[in-house]
Amino acid sequence: LKTIPTNIPKDTVGLYLANNSISTIATTDLSGLTKLENFYIPRNSLTTVEDGSFADLRSLTAMVLSENRLKKFPD
């Protein structure tokens, strides 16, 4: 995968995207995923996480972004 899929069901609680070629988490990529608890995206090509990307993730309890090339991460 080069981008986060756009058809993720809104009731998803775990999203596992390890070992892909995703370079950016865009503001709209995770929008509406209010039930997401676990987000794992290690070993990708991530360089950018846009501001507001995690705004809807009210239920998030675990996130793994290891082994990426992050240059920009929101405040």
UniProtKB/TrEMBL annotation:
Gene3D superfamilies the record matches: Ribonuclease Inhibitor (3.80.10.10)
What are the alphabetically sorted keywords of the record?
Leucine-rich repeat, Repeat, Signal
Q: Which sequence ranges are marked TM in the entry? A: none
InterPro entries linked to this entry: Leu-rich_rpt, LRR_dom_sf, LRR_TM_domain-containing
Q: Which GO terms describe its cellular component?
A: plasma membrane
From what superkingdom does this record's organism come?
Eukaryota
Provide the protein name. LRRNT domain-containing protein
What organism does the UniProt record list as the source? Capitella teleta (Polychaete worm)
